[in-house]
Design a protein that fits this description.
- This protein is an alpha/beta fold and 359 residues long.
- The protein folds into two domains: 241 residues, QueA-like; 95 residues, Thrombin, subunit H (Beta Barrel), CATH 2.40.10.240.
- It has seven helices and 17 strands.
- Strands 2-1-17-16-14-3-12-13-15 form a nine-stranded mixed sheet. A six-stranded antiparallel β-barrel has the order 5-6-7-10-9-8. Strands 4-11 form a two-stranded parallel ribbon.
- The longest helix has 13 residues.
- The protein is globular and about 60 Å long.
Length: 359
């Protein structure tokens, strides 16, 4: 199991960036003192599937690791987009993993108690569409029995499934943890409620974050289904009516809300698909601020930040990450960034930490 210190809320750092591009260096424990009454926090309550399956490529009898990467269709839970590797495990950096045995449509894969078939390759020898030869209940049981969380070399010890579930985890539909939610604990949520800050959720199937191949990584994120409840839509409409701030906990929440937004800034409830990247040219209609992890320039998560701030501000953010040793990855430190825009009635409040020394 993972060292509990990785999830120690008390030692994590928070870099807060306001709408003017000013940076504040805070302990993440101060998250509970941020925001104003009437503001709305929206979090992703998706639980994480044990989406890494080791097994055998039946045609060649060679070992294979299959990482489920995305749902092909919300209506067909037997089909997935998947990434394949050859022998080895997560302790080898993803970019150094051996390739899988040559795959062809119709190939069978023996993955513990589950059998799957390669339907077709998706324009890359490691990316393919997979179909399990059983019903959805048997798939979930097989994943629970044989699967492991998708994991990378920066955490060498094996992760247990509960290590990659946030405290608000509900339905298991994500392929990797909606890791911005690791910053939330019950004390923070209770403090926000006590101060009149709204908290609501949606469910977004966060996909795989890295394939180890630059050409494949450039295609991330894959299409990701989401579900936005009626009560979340109502809470967003109320916050917009008040003119208060809507804060997304994680890039997956930004993708879901902005995908569901109409040109007038309304949000449609129900199921949908988040497609393509959010970046510099994407107009944000719903989200005013984002709590996320520490990302590196070039990856899809960092590119999404360009919808919130200018390159000058993001260069300052990247330099602050380096200078102050902010830790990346899913168990690292956090960034809180407000969308740069004209002043509005209610802005992200950092006054509660005025005068706090840099950490």
């Amino acid at each position: 199991m993972m060292d509990n210190d990785r999830l120690d809320h008390s030692i994590a750092k928070l870099l807060a960036v306001d709408a003017n591009g000013a940076l504040r260096y805070l302990p993440r424990t101060r998250l509970s003192s941020l925001f104003s009454a009437g503001d709305l926090v929206v979090a992703n309550d998706a639980a994480t599937l044990p989406a890494s399956l080791v097994g055998r490529h039946c045609a060649s009898c060679e070992p294979i690791e299959v990482r489920l990467a995305a749902w092909v269709s919300h209506h067909n839970p037997r089909k997935f987009a998947a990434i394949a590797f050859g022998s080895g495990d997560h302790r080898t950096p993803t970019e150094d993993r051996s390739p899988p045995p040559p795959l062809a449509p119709g190939d069978r894969l023996a993955l513990g108690p589950l059998t799957a078939v390669v339907e077709h390759l998706l324009d890359h020898p490691r990316l393919f569409r997979l179909r399990f030869l059983c019903d959805s209940a048997t798939i979930l049981a097989g994943l629970a029995q044989h699967g492991r969380p998708i994991q990378y070399a920066h955490v060498p010890e094996p992760l247990a499934l509960w290590d990659v579930w946030t405290r608000i985890a509900a339905d298991p539909i994500a392929f990797e943890a909606p890791s911005a939610g690791f910053a939330l604990n019950w004390r923070t949520l209770a403090a926000w409620r006590q101060r009149g800050i709204g908290i609501t959720t949606l469910t977004h199937a966060a996909g795989i974050s890295s394939t180890g191949d630059p050409a494949l990584d450039a295609r991330l994120p894959f299409d990701e289904p989401y579900h936005i409840p009626e009560q979340t839509v109502a809470a967003i409409a109320h916050a917009r009516l008040l003119g208060t701030c809507i804060i997304a906990i994680g890039t997956s929440v930004v993708r879901a809300l902005e995908s569901a937004a109409d040109v007038h800034g309304g949000v449609s409830p129900g199921h949908g698909i988040a497609r393509g990247r959010i970046g510099r040219q994407t107009p944000l209609r719903i989200v005013d601020a984002l709590l996320t992890g520490v990302h590196q320039a070039g990856d899809s998560h960092f590119e999404l930040l360009r919808a919130f701030a200018s390159d000058v501000v993001l260069d300052s953010v990247s330099e602050a990450f380096r200078a102050c040793d902010y830790q990346p990855h899913e168990f690292g430190d956090s960034l809180l960034i407000e969308r740069q825009r004209r002043a509005r009635h209610q802005a992200l409040t950092l006054a509660a930490v005025e005068g706090l020394d840099n950490i």
